[in-house]
Amino acid sequence: MSRTAFPGSELTSRRVKCHITSFIYAVSIALLSPSSYPAQPSAPSERAAAGLKEGVQALFAGDYAGAEAAANRQLAIDSRSVEALVLLARAQMAQGKYPLAFSSLRRALGRSPDHVEALYFMGKLASALSQMEYQELAQRAPGSGRVRQLVGDSYQASGELDKALDEYRAALVIQPDLTDVALELAEILRTQGRFEEALKYYSQILERSPRHFPSLYGAGLCHQALQQEDQSIRCFEQAAIADPKDASCRYALGTAWMRKGEAHKAVEVLTAAVHLDPSLWGAYSLLGRALLLTGQPEMAAEAFEKAKQGQQREVQSQHDKAKKVIGAPVKN
After folding, report:
1. Looking at the domain assignment, is residue 172 inside a domain?
2. What DSSP designation does 124 have?
3. In a domain, 127, yes or no
4. Which helix (H) or strand (E) holds 266?
5. Rg of the Cα trace of the chain?
6. Residue 59 in contact with residue 87, Cβ under 8 Å?
7. Are 246 and 276 in contact (CB under 8 A)?
8. Residue 115: which region, alpha, beta or left (left: phi > 0; alpha: psi -120 to 50)?
9. Contact 108, 89 (CB under 8 A)
10. Residue 331 carries which DSSP code?
């Protein structure tokens, strides 16, 4: 099949550069905008605060070398200052010193793995570096399947799923063996409720890789949605073999057995699911129903109680996180 089978398939490097350049420009604006990142935590001392303030002022004034120098001066005073490392990384990023910035942020996260600013800017930097690598790919091979995949990824990120699907399909015409592209197609189609179309791409992957877990699991979900329980059971059983440590496929398999009226088989796989992942509260609830059907009321009551307790803990956890986000005090 020729590439002209897809509208707009005469892809040029200019089109790809447009997607990537706009992304990197947005990242650059985000890195320098005071309103786009989390507020800095309190500095440990007045001297440190003064040094950091000087560096931040230099950064926003466009004096990136000055900001870098201020951060290095602060690090000479306190080599473990995470705030100074983050400032140093931002100044380095603004000057295009991405490898140095990456190193600075890694040092910061090594000292404070949960530091919000360090995590935020590491995410921005990683995205920018990734897109720059793709830009090099686009320049070297503008008509490759991987470049069509790149454009599809950009459409997917912006929510233009129909355009993303077109690009992924075009990528497969050029390079039919791109498993990750076929999987993206299948996953998008499945989330859109287009289960039979999704199964086409899952099946293509499984013809080449019969133990490909994401495709086995995704195909099982499609068959389950189409009320094709026998096919879904086969897929979930194979998925459980492909990944013995995955709980989700066993939960789904238990659901399928319950729909078939096979409560004893459901008990077996659901017990395995909650053993692998005790946070699957829905699986505990379904296990309770299966235990009742198999004449085990006491064990069913225990399963229902665990489901209830888990759901309460999850609600409380989400409530506490919400309070922290808005800055309200959290009561014990």
Report:
1. no
2. H
3. yes
4. helix 263-276
5. 26
6. yes
7. yes
8. beta
9. yes
10. P
